[in-house]
Amino acid sequence: MARPRRSDDTRQLLVEEGAAGFLSNGYHGTGIKQVLDAVGVPKGSFYNYFDSKEGFGQAIIDHHSLCIQRNMADALGPAPDPVTGLRAFFGRQMDEFVASDFTGGCLIANLGAELEGSDILRESLSDAFRTWRDGVAVALREAQGQGLIRVDIDAVELADLLIESWEGAVIRMKLDRSLEPLHKCLRRLLDDYFRP
């Protein structure tokens, strides 16, 4: 039996609404019916767009990963140097945290803590994290070539350190409802430890 034709626009709306739900309420706290109702899609239509809630979760993770890549490219493109571009990228994340009243955080980290039992989603999250890390590493490698970042440590290792520190600072930001942990993370690494 052939599956009904999917509307890519409706699928995208479901993914965006699901991402907002996952960020606010987590994977387990976000009901499919709640997402369908918010988009105005009949309950029986969910399987026209996704095979399962796990498949829906994968689509949301992929969407979030693409948003990170796009936001990074937008921040790095016009920047005078890669370090300034990375600051702009992380600054945009801080703007999003403020806009969400410090309740959202990072979808990858939030789901990573919640979904340790799902191999499929854990692998999707790991891929999304690796893609983010690789984008940061490319910028740091370019900055190394410009003499802005120390060269005695590989750019991938520095990128891991930056993102892992950032994610820890995001947790502290949520607890303190303050951007100061994020500013401190960037100062300690980009302005100090990473410098040549």
Structure, described:
The chain has helices at 8-25, 32-39, 46-49, 53-76, 82-99, 107-114, 119-145, 155-176, 180-193. Helices cover 73% and strands 0% of the residues. Helix 8 (155-176) packs antiparallel against helix 9 (180-193). It is elongated. Mean pLDDT is 91; it is low at 1-5. It is mainly alpha-helical and 196 residues long. It has a domain at 58-193: Orthogonal Bundle (Tetracycline Repressor, domain 2).
The quaternary structure here is single chain
Percentage of residues in strands:
under 5%
- Structural class, by secondary structure, is mainly alpha
Instruction: Please tally the helical runs, counting DSSP H or I stretches of 4 or more residues.
Output: 9
Keyword list:
single chain; 196 residues; mainly alpha; Tetracycline Repressor, domain 2; 9 helices; elongated; disordered N terminus
